[in-house]
Amino acid sequence: TSPLVIAIDGPSGSGKSSVSKAVARSLGLSYLDTGAMYRAATWWCLHSGIELTDATAVADAVRAMPLVMGVDPAAPTVTVGGTDIGEAIRETSISASVSAVATNLDVRAELGRLQRAAIEEAGHADSFSQGRGIVAEGRDITTVVAPDADVRVLLTASEEARLARRSLEVHGDADAASVEATRDQVLRRDADDSTVVQFHVAADGVVTVDSSDLDFDQTVQAVLDVVAAR
Ligand code: C5P
Questions:
Q1: Whose CA is nearest to atom 14 of ligand 1?
Q2: Is 131 annotated as a binding residue?
Q3: Residues 72, 31 contacting (CB under 8 angstroms)
Q4: 201 C-alpha to center of ligand 1: Å?
Q5: In which residues is ATP bound (predicted)?
Q6: Is residue 230 part of a domain?
Q7: Among 140, 139, 141, 120, CA closest to 131
Q8: What is the CATH number for 167?
Q9: Which residue's CA is minimally distant from atom 1 of ligand 1?
Q10: Residue 103, domain member (yes or no)
Q11: How many Å apart are CA 166 and CA 13, to the nearest integer?
Q12: Residue nearest to ligand 1 atom 4, measured at CA
């Protein structure tokens, strides 16, 4: 049997990461968080003292980044030169700067190349998934990185639902003040990202799963149903 490639895109707060991990676990597949790779690139540039406005320096730094992505969906890891940066890349300073790095087209070319290599690797018998395949999630996986994936899903949710989820994640609360604090950050990042990647409308052949009125388990099931129906 040939490896299964599942591509999942969506805006921030759509639940992409948790849903993708659960789908990968349930099917015994590898899991690749491509947003974590853009976050790692941002961490690496800041850590190396590079001005994010210097596009050439940023691209050079990212090409030299010793990044290793751990693809076990039960415990995904991100290491750069042996340093575990899984937590550091979730800090607000990274979230606030990541779009500046992700809109660099040379960075996108380099990370896209690494992402295709990881997808290819998951088809090998000696890989984590033993050749069963991978769930790769991000903003441009269904369209640019793996347009010929076996299953392509756009995971969406209403703005209200996305803000409430992110607020819970970041502030541990979804009261009015916390949602308001999240709003600017989330919407600005999506707006900045939208200048180079399109992830609000499903491309041809991509199945939309709207999770606004679904709980977590129902959303995972909806994606598994798309996989089963392929
Ligand atoms: O998914 P997450 O919110 O962690 O992604 C962080 C950032 O990485 C996004 O805001 C976007 O700038 C970038 N990204 C991207 N293309 C992807 C995945 C993420 O540009 N495929």
A1: 35
A2: no
A3: yes
A4: 16
A5: 10-18
A6: no
A7: 120
A8: 3.40.50.300
A9: 35
A10: yes
A11: 5
A12: 35
